[in-house]
Design a protein that fits this description.
The complex is a heterodimer of chains A (about 325) and B (about 325). Chain A has 14 helices and 2 strands. Chain A has about 325 residues and is mostly helical. In chain A, helix 5 packs antiparallel against helix 6, helix 8 packs antiparallel against helix 11 and helix 9 packs antiparallel against helix 10. With about 325 residues, chain B is of the alpha/beta class. Helix content of chain B is about 30%, strand content about 25%. Chain B is built from 11 helices and 12 strands. In chain B, the strands form 2 sheets. An 8-stranded mixed beta sheet of chain B has the order 6-7-8-3-9-10-12-11, sandwiched between helices. In chain B, helix 4 packs across helix 5 and helix 5 crosses helix 7. The two termini of chain B are about 35 Å apart. Classes of the chains: A mainly alpha (about 325), B alpha/beta (about 325). Chains A and B meet through helix 9 and helix 10 of A and helix 2, helix 4 and helix 7 of B.
């Protein structure tokens, strides 16, 4: 098991290296940041001083190596526009996105999986058909539209929940979290629901497909022959047997929600990283873009590693080096 | 007949498919005494497994019991409510399946799965369940039973896995075990071991056993009585020795002739021409007639019961009675 973890960590390091090169080269090819940074009527001397200051006169590979060297020391550079360290900038926005994404994915899992298991267990019942029809909507209706409808319904017409922004935060480990206060939860509810609909639909479909397959298996027949109740069979046999694909999708969805919650964050004015990356792209703030993408790659690699390790927890056949 | 543990009368299990009604079990009747071992033999699709599942109330949709009666220890099982049926399953009637690799849950330990089976019928706390599980494993010949409770199914060999499945079936000391080809997926040497042990366990605990198999040789070494099933009907029944040495039905004869153990060395094995008929398009009369060398025009009508109560067959032209 330890050897496996070390092997996976080395793989992860290579993935990060490749990602950083790709991102750096990809972003380097876009536009000329110096035009954004200094006013058009600056003298040639000031212009060249600025280029030298940011190291933009060096060849690409030297810029990359310098970037990589700083990266290894945890330095992602400074924002051209705001002139504060990128890491600090991203980390100040990350908790907001983190709690939004986590709330959305957990909502998707805790509501979607039981509904999906039910739909797979009783595929012919009207309730199951309604669940499946709703899941098609969850897939196909655009997020921004659902977001607007949610605001219109719950914030404007019913006035139950706030229409946008993040609620008050509580400091834990030096980071502000809003889900710890009642008011914060009220602010979180609508954007999280909006973001979770797609995941919910996916969890429903995945667990339904898995359940239908497992219900026909001899494992379930044998459990029934042993006199187990249907509820015990669903909870202890079926849930465990369908958990691996669910965990995979859960991890991937969590990663992509973190990285690309842009639409929801924009609609609900949620001060997360999605808003930050859009702003940095429009202002060609290269260090922020590169730093953000490297952090996102790091998050994905980490999540995938955790997902892979949890397979071993869920499926004993994948644990190596155990007694024969 | 009140001494009988199981009394099945005119059992009909039908599958309502789009292509029509498939009569997988079509009027099966038999009785089983306590502690008796009954072999149920037939080719694939003869309805023998469906018969087994009907007895334990686990026929998968679109199948359902369309008629007849199953009396278990005086209690009618056909039409019994699911909670009551569930109370019997695993407790008084248990079942063992063909492929232990598929029946045991690969992601739960043997101990967890056995504890669930214990607690499905009350069974007290975790500790008592584990003790009962370990005793049951030891009974079926699994060494170091207590330690093995924490092992997963893939850490057992095929034969050991089937022993675990049998141990689960034996947990509550049921009065009837239905074994659906439990040795088919195993090596021949392991098969013989399991057979001998099952026989010993059944005799020792007074458990009645219905052994479903396509293999007449396996059944003959184990059972007291044997029933031969064809196209949803029992075409011959009787004590093992009599059925083996003086079969009445031409189909039984055909099965015997195709056994390598009984054939003359050097000769080609005999085989029954044709294949099992589709249960959706059964012609009236004897379903075996199209494949039977003794068939006549009389076989177009339902065959009569010949022989006596001990050893009988459904045939117009039984063997040993002239053509």
């Amino acid at each position: 098991m330890l050897g496996y973890i070390i092997q996976r960590l080395i793989q992860a390091a290579f993935v990060m290296l490749a990602m950083s090169a790709l991102v750096f080269v990809g972003v380097y090819a876009i536009g000329n940041p110096i035009d954004v940074l200094i006013s058009p009527d600056a003298t040639q001397d000031i212009r060249e001083a600025a280029i030298r200051h940011y190291g933009l006169d060096l060849p690409l590979w030297q810029q990359y190596l310098a970037f990589l060297g700083r990266l290894l020391q945890g330095d992602l550079g400074r924002s051209f526009v705001l002139n504060i360290p990128v890491l600090e900038l991203v980390l100040s926005r990350l908790p907001a996105t983190l709690e939004l994404a986590l709330a959305a994915v957990l909502m998707g899992a805790f509501i979607g999986v039981p509904l999906g298991i039910y739909a797979g267990y009783r595929p012919e019942s009207p309730a199951s058909k309604a669940i499946m029809a709703a899941s098609v909507l969850g897939f196909s209706v655009p997020t921004f539209w659902v977001g607007l409808i949610l605001i219109l319904t719950f914030a404007v017409n019913l006035d139950w929940l706030p229409a946008g922004d993040r609620g008050p935060t509580v400091e834990v480990f030096g980071v502000g979290w809003s889900f710890l206060t009642r008011e914060g939860l009220a602010f979180l509810a609508l954007p999280a629901l909006n973001l979770s609909l797609f995941k919910l639909a996916m969890m429903v479909r995945l667990s339904r497909a898995g359940t239908r397959e497992v219900m026909l298996s001899d494992t379930v027949k044998f459990a029934r022959a042993a006199g187990l109740s249907e509820f015990t069979i669903l909870r202890r046999h079926v849930l465990r047997l369908i958990s691996i694909p669910l965990v995979t999708v859960f991890g991937l969805e969590f990663g992509s929600t973190l990285a690309f919650a842009v639409v929801t964050e924009t609609i609900f004015s949620w001060p997360g990283v999605g808003k930050l990356i859009i702003d940095s792209i429009t202002s060609l703030d290269r260090p922020v873009m590169v730093g953000y993408l490297v952090l996102v790659a790091f998050l994905f690699v980490t999540i995938n590693l955790v997902v892979d390790l949890s397979y071993a927890l869920l499926d004993p056949r994948l644990r190596r080096g155990r007694r024969a | 007949m009140s001494a009988a543990l199981l009394e099945v009368r005119d059992l009909r299990t039908h599958f309502h498919t789009r292509a029509g009604v498939l009569k997988a079990v079509d009027g099966v009747s038999f009785t089983l005494a306590r502690g008796e071992i009954l072999g149920l033999v037939g080719e694939s699709g003869s309805g023998k497994s469906v018969t087994g599942f009907s007895l334990i109330g686990l026929v998968d949709p679109p199948g359902r019991i369309a008629g007849g009666s199953i009396r278990f220890d005086g209690q009618e099982l056909v039409g019994l409510a699911q909670p009551a049926m569930r109370g019997l399953r695993g407790k008084r009637i248990a079942m063992v399946f063909q492929d232990p690799a598929a029946t045991l849950n690969p992601v739960l330990t043997i101990g967890q799965q056995m504890a669930m089976a214990v607690q499905a019928h009350g069974g007290g706390g975790e500790r008592a369940a584990r003790e009962l599980a370990a005793r049951s494993l030891a009974r079926v010949g699994i060494p170091d039973a207590v330690a093995r409770l924490d092992a997963y199914p893939h850490e057992f060999s095929g034969g050991m896995r089937q022993r675990v499945a049998i141990a689960i079936a034996l947990l509550h000391q049921p009065e009837l075990i239905i074994a659906d080809e439990p040795t088919t997926a195993l090596d021949v040497s392991i098969q013989a071991q399991i057979l001998a042990e099952m026989k010993a366990l059944a005799k020792e605990s007074g458990t009645a056993l219905i052994w479903i198999s396509h293999d007449l040789a396996t059944v003959s070494s184990l059972a007291d009585r044997v029933m031969v099933m064809y196209a949803g009907r029992i075409v011959e029944r009787g004590p093992v020795a009599e059925v083996l040495h003086a079969p009445l039905h031409p189909y039984t004869r055909g099965l015997l002739d195709s056994l390598p153990a009984l054939a003359t060395p050097g000769q080609r094995l005999a085989q029954i021409p044709g294949s099992t008929p589709s249960l959706l398009s059964l012609a009236p009369g004897c379903p075996f007639a199209p494949r039977c060398a003794r068939a006549s025009t009389a076989c177009g009508t339902d065959p009569p019961q010949v022989g006596d109560a001990r050893h009988g067959a459904l045939c117009h032209h039984p063997l040993g009675a002239g053509p």
